[in-house]
């Protein structure tokens, strides 16, 4: 039975650190075991978005295949992974594409965090999505609040909402903020929709989505998987093995 509930009480919510900082001040998240296996391998999820200090922060926004943030590189032209690149280029013919997933050197999560951290593949996001109909999990719409019960907001004063996914067998959970995406200097759909990149190209595509990659779309506690233009700056939620 599907377990998606809207919560009005957040007594256990704490504005706590997501992980630890390494020598380069990169926030290394905790690896959260949600009991998800893909092809027999346990996939653990980061406790916060890439670049965030807490689970409620949106973190950094990246174009697909870029390892520099949209703020560090506003034009998104450091290597053109999201547009013209021999490894990821399609011209209506799947044979012209060498890879279906990002290489490690083009994976922002791997480059920034090291180890086995990386962007989730499509099948890993879909495995997480499937938990919304399982009795072993609870999907809960949640408003982020501080220790005093005050709503947490972003830099534009927009309130932070998202979905908490809890694995009931061990009590572990992650919070996915509805951080929207960056549209120039503005946040689009912040607090309303969660967009997160996968490492998977939209390789079965029409010319309409010629330069697209796959991303998860979370709204009102429900998730779908759609192709989006690779040049769209979105948050990243990393995984590791």
Structure characterization notes:
The protein is mainly beta and 241 residues long. The chain has one domain (4-240). It is 6% helix and 31% strand. It has two helices and 14 strands; from the N terminus they run E-E-E-E-E-H-H-E-E-E-E-E-E-E-E-E. It has helices at 108-113, 122-130; strands spanning 4-6, 19-21, 27-29, 31-38, 41-46, 137-143, 161-167, 173-177, 181-183, 186-188, 193-201, 212-219, 222-229, 239-240. The strands form five sheets. The protein has a four-stranded mixed beta sheet, with no helix packed on it. The protein has a three-stranded antiparallel beta sheet with strand order 4-5-14, covered by helices on one side. Strands 11-12-13 form a three-stranded antiparallel beta sheet. A hairpin with a 5-residue loop joins strand 2 and strand 3. The protein is globular and about 50 Å long. Mean pLDDT is 83; it is low at 1-16 and 92-96.
Task: Quickly list its features.
single chain; 241 residues; 4-stranded mixed sheet; 3-stranded antiparallel sheet; 2 helices; globular
Query: Termini distance?
Result: 28 Å
The topology string of helices and strands comes to EEEEEHHEEEEEEEEE
Main β-sheet, spatial strand arrangement: 1-6-7-8
Query: What value does the Rg take, in angstroms?
Result: 17 Å
* Helix content percent band: under 10%
Extract low-pLDDT stretches. Answer: 1-16, 92-96
**Total of domains:** 1
Question: On the 0-100 scale, what is the average pLDDT?
Answer: 83
* Discrete helix count: 2
Strand content: 25-35%
Shape assignment: globular
The total strand number stands at 14
Largest sheet: 4 strands, mixed
Sheet/helix structural class:
mainly beta
